[in-house]
């Protein structure tokens, strides 16, 4: 993980700005011999796509991906997979008033300070459109994971929006249930309440944050490289790199720190000689000592409310003078529903990378 | 960050097991020309040392570090700094009953599964004694940071133990105040209560978790490499790699996800032409778009209760049969006080790495 | 350097097959603030382009590069530069007879063995068309180098073809002199003889090898990272990664190993107090202890004769049976003239990477 | 490969100066489950040790290695192997006259320029004593390779000293034959002549260069990662990083560039259905398209004459003034005999790294 490349052996390098010609990337280290289902890649992009419902941004992009290399007769060849998604619905004029003005709590000020120049159109590189490339990288990784571990299945959903928390958080849910509503929360009553809340804040020109939960079933034991490459540290870095992420926890997380060890240890019991033992609880969240133990991996990512408000806010311009800004452009009132496929992608990329690294753990 | 190496340009590679000959490492990428204060390195090791107070493990180690290279006449030469800390007070016999038995919620089972072999003595490589090498790496990094940014100062403290939360969490405190008690909590009333709680759980053969807060003052704007090397993602990976860490958040963190954007944006105002603007709040925790903005970096790390209980627990052995284990050995009832210098070390290592990477951001 | 990415801080990741949709890549770590001259990038591609003269392959590709990101108003922004060059003149049918047959001394057999699948069309990923992406990466790097070191100039030329060696090898020559003939040899008499030799072997359906020399003037002292990142080792890895490269040497190279130390040491003499000393010879080739010393960097790369002969050769098919192959397709009888811009590109990429790494050598 | 770390999955990080406390390193990524023969590690160190014969330096070091971690009951555990070799016979006073004087063609001037400070005692970090750590890393790697590929055997020998070339260069020789003389040349007549030449130049206070050849038998097909991680490029970088190396070639190397393709292609013929084909020649040197093809890997490394002459030479001091230097200290008149085990170590480290990387090439 450095600069614009995720991963060590399964490596996804991304490029592209919100209002540039294209978003794209290179997937390096995809093992050869995987029959690639292009529709499932596009399906994940469609889940991330703007304009998919009343609670997401109105920007209209078809976000069709073109794979440029690395696949022959539908099968991966072991060579890098280059891909691009053309931008088409840029309204760059909407951003003219931001050329010299820093949006509060955005990356505008920090990019300008770091690089001396910045692309002010739609957030440039710091736009969440960059996550398109991650969704492609994750959807490809998922197909390698399925070939390796047919039972592995990643379940990612919105578990909290504002003060509304779902019931049954931390359990694995079927993808169809998650996608049965546009909030992507498997608790339908909570989903309805979350949707109302999002529309309320949207109506007020405001935004709201929340939490995404990811549960991975069918992870083999042994993934993760101590000390510096612990599985949860790599998952944490991947999740925290998503736009608007402010926190990451796994297993008992922050809540568990007020508990006693006697409440929190995961006791094992025998399933019979020669069988892997059974864990009678999973406070560890599927990871012990940085290595997966075969139980479900359970993790949560906190997302802040989007910083772009559709109302006038005080700020400064690049000459250092006070000014105000009334953002135009098209923005999500709540990133959670569209963050769900991005979290899923980062989980898949990280787990495949860990699976490949684990191939070197033993001599045989 | 991979396997046993932290960092990209400032790289700390660690080795060593709890009951092996030594813990040590190699610091690579330390810039030349830093006058190295060896006492400040040893001071940090002393803060991490076992047996320093009634609320820490009784293992008695002097933990004297020997630097083997990379320094001449007290000044760094730009070449790698090898170092070792000899182990001396191993009571390996205490662990004989664990040779074939997996301690619940420890790395015993996952190491055995991953590698086929494991060092059962004192946790082997998964022991927190490994953090000795990080403390050395961090103390050296801190001296480079001070040479670069004289105003930078890292304040790390215990902010919560069990249900007891300090008042004034998230503020910068002087190191002397933090070290004025053995819990390392700058709120003395809370510290007293935490100490009582730790002694209570210790008396019951139990353990307790908590939260460490880190606040870094004097960070220059511009540190952090988007997209895959965001500053908070690198800090998160570093912190999550510490033994017993279960969660990481920065700025508004998990709590902020229930708030509205209008409450959470950090508005800037002018300090006059040619001056950097003033932020009137710091919900961002000093990082926007993955790049530091010059405000205090504020972050929190959640630590679980230690898994080793000094009472009998049910578990399985490596033949898969049920058994019980009554741990001997010497263990901390609460890792928080000794985790404080480790969090500080990881912060220093990550910030120096980010500072060196940032030297390539612009052509001039 | 790993898999499909060159470099540590200036990183060029490439993708694409000879007969796929496109060749392309991502340039990561390009410093912000460089005014980018697109024509000079295209100029280098034109120098590498097939079909440019009677002594190169007849494949006709315009090889127009499209930059997709990382540049705004003509200036680099510090974000990754994605780029593609579309393939257009594939004659994939020419390769139908190679689907199941391994061309001798090609990568056909090794790719099939390694990956289980292979793209047989035009060599797939092992085709020298991949070097398009390197030429783009190098041309961009060159512009950063020029901004940093206005005196730096890379001179790369064909110094030997078969038995014909130029006079004056190892000296810096002006680009215009090098490009004054299609062999790219600055000794015109030798160039004429080389050209005749290439046409002779081409007429016989055969191929011929040679040597490319690179001389870099204006390199600052201090580039190169001992021990594992020595400047000449990084240059060597970069050059040896070029298709058909079989050897690399710098300075006195292989010939110097039969000489005595007293003949080969580069003595320095004073240029006056406060001035850098003068070297009275340059057997070191501008690099001592893996670090540049300010003298011209001089290096040579040996290229084998192209393995594809336009005549019938014995080989085996993928069932393991004997067969013969009469290659069609369009091929160079000698790679040297077109390898010249690729060597130049690899030199530029490596030197920029070294220059960025060197920014971390000292504290100030 | 960067700074002081070799390798991607099998990573050897080294530290230590010639006259510091110790040379050492960390081996990371050694697979678990290898029974480690400590004597074979020490044996390789003894082959590299100074003072072993009349044609090597008189410095007397026992060079005993101490492994500090990563091994339990004689078996590797998958955790990093830290190790140190104490320096004992430093005669640092011999170097007092070099504190302010740059030895010609040494790294003195370049280190001083790069870092601002330098360790003048015995070359500091640029001393060939650093290769001790590589020899340990290589000897450990060799044991993993033997466990993986029982037929693999690396044969490294001195093939040329000055003008004296052995007969039969490029063939595999038994280690016992190579070590039957102190030049480590398997052609005894040539070895005698080389020995006389080395003693002659030594007597004259001069030094001489030469060539080391390495032949690896029993390499499986499939090692090497195109495009940036070609096997010969990684081997080349490894070899060129050895002190005094000036050139690297494999297979037909520089000589082959004057030959025609029809002479140089390696034709395959059938060994029967289901069998791997036979190559009837090996001009490729065992590597095609950057990937091993199962034939012997054949490569050569050119070493310059040692720059330290035991006679007076002109040079400059660190104030920029002319001066002369008469080196004392103890130096090799010819590095070749002691370079042999270092070349062997770099080959083993690189091949193990490639073998581990290759485990990710295919999905199954």
UniProtKB/TrEMBL annotation, chains A, B, C, D:
Reduced FMN (FMNH(2)). It holds the Pfam family Chorismate_synt. Its EC number is 4.2.3.5. It catalyses: 5-O-(1-carboxyvinyl)-3-phosphoshikimate = chorismate + phosphate. NADP(+) binds at residue 48. Pathway: Metabolic intermediate biosynthesis; chorismate biosynthesis; chorismate from D-erythrose 4-phosphate and phosphoenolpyruvate: step 7/7. Its cofactor is FMNH2. The keyword Flavoprotein applies. GO terms for cellular component: cytosol. One of its GO terms (molecular function) is FMN binding. HAMAP family: Chorismate_synth. NCBIfam families: aroC, PRK05382.1. This reaction introduces a second double bond into the aromatic ring system. Homotetramer. This is Chorismate synthase. The lineage of its organism: Bacteria, Pseudomonadati, Bacteroidota, Bacteroidia, Bacteroidales. The gene is aroC.
